[in-house]
Amino acid sequence: MSQNCISVFQYPDAVLAVDSGLFRDRMACCYLVEDQDEVAIIEAGGESGARRLLQTIDRRGLRPEQVRWVIVTHVHLDHAGGAGQLMQALPEATLLVHERGAKHMTDPSKLEAGARAVYGDEQYDAIYGSLVPIDPKRVRVMPDGGQVSLGAREFRFIDTPGHASHHFCVHDSRTNGWFSGDTFGLSYRELDTQNGPFIFPTTTPIDFNPDALRSSIEKLGSVDPDWMYLTHFGRIAYSPDLARRLIEGVNHFEQWGLEFENVPDRKQRISAAMTGWLLEAVKKHGVDLPRDRLIELLQPDVDLNTDGIDVWLRRRAKTLSGP
Questions:
Q1: Helix ranges restricted to H, the chain
Q2: DSSP labels for 159-210?
Q3: CA dihedral sign, ordered 219, 164, 57, 123
Q4: What pLDDT, on the 0 to 100 scale, is given for residue 321?
């Protein structure tokens, strides 16, 4: 449904997905979870995501003081860029973050500088705006296996590296679902068919680790969850087949990286291989969108994943060459 241009998706058990407005509709979302007069936010989005979350809280008749937790699965800006703005507006909230990401929430200057270098100032300002530092006293590091309560439900946190070393996922006892950030891949609703959701992995240009990502995907499935609440995008029913397809995708990413590791145009080769694989896979899945529309949907992730594989190869080469 739409709330004055804010798309929200109501799921059972008091879970609401709010489209963060990043780049296009239904690309990224944040979650509001309610239980016994308490509220948690999972994923802060960027500037627009924070604004939309606060507007949605107001429109639902909730008070800012009811928000107990603001949780970011990792500190990439599409997940955590709006955290500082949220914390300014939510006086009783505590930010829950991975230990490797906490310093970037209290001093986001390096995150902002890095993103400005990638996007340029004009595009960066339009997407994310200025990052707001958070008082360290309001930041709580969540260890692997740590738990917090929200009303009658329990959130359990597990370390899930692979996409990022500062990534955790959050298990919700009431839904038996994972808020999976980017660990359980991407699944855009435009690609749903009678065969269910189409899913594929996502890397990062900083610290993609294929072995760790495969292990993290398996770890999520080991508790036999019912649901995955993806940041990109929305709730999907978990199945072992989805996990298998994700791991196959990670295997492909690793294979292309190693195959093209020593060719001068490896990024172009990896990108072409990935594009061909995705287009063939969505066709087999029953997606009948025009090729131009598919390229429009998938190209940003092809570019990001290609960069992630390339940086992994550079890091790997340094490790193999020794000190």
A1: 47-59, 77-80, 83-89, 102-106, 109-119, 121-127, 210-221, 240-259, 266-285, 291-321
A2: E--SS-TT-EEEEETTTTEEEEETTT-B--GGG-BTTB---B----TTT--H
A3: negative
A4: 64
3-state secondary structure of 295: helix
Mean pLDDT is lowest, of 11-20, 122-131, 146-155, 276-285, for 122-131
Are 41 and 90 in the same domain? Answer: yes
- Residue at which a domain ends, from 243, 259, 291: 243
Cα gap 77→160, rounded to integer Å:
18
Residues 249, 193, single domain; the answer is no
Nearest partner of 207 among 313, 92, 318, 291, judged by Cα: 313
**Residue 268 is encoded by which pair of tokens?**
């172009």
Q: Smallest Cα–Cα separation from 280: which of 308, 305, 300, 252?
A: 252
A 10 A CB-CB count for 302 gives 19
Q: Are residues 149 and 235 in the same domain?
A: yes
Q: By residue range, what is the domain housing residue 266?
A: 244-321
Residue 153: strand pairing partners: 150
Residue whose C-alpha is closest to residue 133's, from 164, 110, 100, 165 = 110
What angle is formed at CA 259 by the lines to CA 258 and CA 260, rounded to 5 degrees? Answer: 95
Does the predicted model carry a pTM greater than 0.85? Answer: yes
Token output for 125: 């300002």
- 223-250: pLDDT as tens digits: 999 999 999 999 999 999 999 999 999 9
pLDDT tens sequence across 170-217:
999 999 999 999 999 999 999 999 999 999 999 987 789 999 999 999
Average the pLDDT over 142-160 and give the result: 98
Q: Are 208 and 282 found together in one domain?
A: no
In which band, very low, low, confident or very high, does the pLDDT at 3 lie, cut at 50, 70 and 90? very low
- Across residues 58-73, what is the average pLDDT? 98
- Answer yes or no: do 65 and 201 share one domain: yes
User: Are 49 and 23 contacting, i.e. CB atoms less than 8 angstroms apart?
Assistant: no
